[in-house]
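Entry for the shared binder. Reason: the reviewer on the internal report wants the predicted structure included alongside the sequence.
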Amino acid sequence: MSSTTIPGVRPRSGGDVPAVPHKTPPARVVLYVFLIGASILWLFPLLWAVFNSFRDYGYTQANGYASFGGFTLDNYANAWRQGNFGRHFFNSVIITVPSVVLALLLASMVAFVVARFNFKFNLALLGLFTAANLLPPQALLIPLFRLFKAIEVPFWFSYSGTLLDSYWALIIVNTAFQTGFCAFVLSNYMKTLPYELYEAAQVDGLSVFKQYWKITLPLCRPALAALAVLEITWIYNEFFWATVLLQSGDKFPITSSLNNLKGQFFTDYNLLSAGSVLVALPVLVVFFALQKQFVSGLTLGATKG
């Protein structure tokens, strides 16, 4: 009878069988070195920006960025004031929250139809919604600009009388571009739900809408949470369509605040680092708040047999 050592399982001490030292294969050592090096390369710029965001610009100019000292919180206060962060944070919330809610709601409806009903146009419908993600935004820049400029709306809806230069323009564009990706992900997720649930619901007389609202949506909570984190990150950081569709400076999202911290002939990179940290904080808060659901939504598909 031969004794073997299972990798990762610590052998019992004090027995008759001597402990065999576990040797790490060379390939795994190379993998560990590569992963550690890649992690350091990825984390270094972030940690360096956070480190310098707490340092006084005069101290770093006198002693160099490789020095240690000159710590202060003034950069955050100055960045908040100069970048008008309060106003632009509010703009980002107005744009991001409705866009994410609408994209997930519409995408879940499309995904429910595609996943639960065998219509002939299911594949074409899903392809139509996904096609928007395949087009580069630059290709739609001029048509969308002219379209939004030509659509007249009441002045209580937009002070310009058109969709141009209004929050609604960004909400519509972000919702339209993100719905296809969300529908594609949610349809694949809903297909993994047991069909017996819906058969039992039909026997109990549950309508199609209640099957969607009371059965499907609660079961899709991990996938919805994962998509919500991704969508909040993408829409919150979006700046391209804001520069195209907005003309009033006080309506721009938070990403424009960083541009306000740059001077024409001089840039305080410590101040800019503090502003970057402030911009990134809401996304980090959302991620850690939904971390459990986010990881569950990403790994569930990998555990399906």
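Summary line for the report: The mean pLDDT is 85.
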